[in-house]
Amino acid sequence: MVIPERVEGRKVHWAGTMTVREESVLLWLYDDLRYDGDTVSVFVNGQCVAHRIEVPHRKQPRALRVHLQPGTNHLVMHAENEGREAPNTAGMLVRTKGKKHCLVMRSTMNHSAGLLNAPRERLNGPRAGTRWTLVPKNASSSIACSPA
Predict the structure, then answer these.
(1) Over the range 8-42, which residues count as b (16 or more CB within 10 Å of their CB) and which as e?
(2) What angle do CA 26, 27, 31 make, to 5 degrees?
């Protein structure tokens, strides 16, 4: 899988890498700063899984079930607007079996925010049962969203 450098013409700023071993995760999306009408599209592995959704108040987060593929997976949050205050700031709680991963992704009208899922690797290779490969160091393609 090629990690995208751009989404709908905007450069992706990769926020980090996370280890996940499940076939799906539950994302809880909410406005991390002030609820101000931010909207985003969310891409997983180049597919739009949420198109122009409002980023809700933190007291009422929006759940998105995301199905992952064997190997490297990538998630991109693409700002559709910046609400009443820039930037578009979404808090995201990634829930897997028994674990919670909290992060904040900031996206503007000039760049999108991304997250990579990759495993930890031991000296003698990936741990038995893991579904993930290491993330390539270079990115060379772009992805686009169409309404669902």
Answers:
(1) eebebebbeebebeeeebebbbbbbbebbebbbbb
(2) 155
Q: Which amino acid is at 141?
A: S
In angstroms, the CA 58 to CA 145 distance is 25
**Degrees, nearest 5: CA angle 106-112-113:** 55
Of 17, 4, 97, 71, nearest to 43 by C-alpha is 4
pLDDT tens track, the chain, 148 positions = 678 899 889 999 987 788 777 888 889 999 988 899 999 999 999 999 999 999 999 999 999 999 888 888 899 999 999 999 888 888 888 887 778 878 888 899 999 988 888 654 432 333 333 232 223 333 344 444 444 3
Look up residue 129 and give its DSSP letter.
T
101 burial via Cβ count (<10 Å: 0-12, 13-18, 19+): middle
Q: Please check whether residue 67 is in contact with residue 20, taking contact to mean a CB–CB distance below 8 angstroms.
A: no
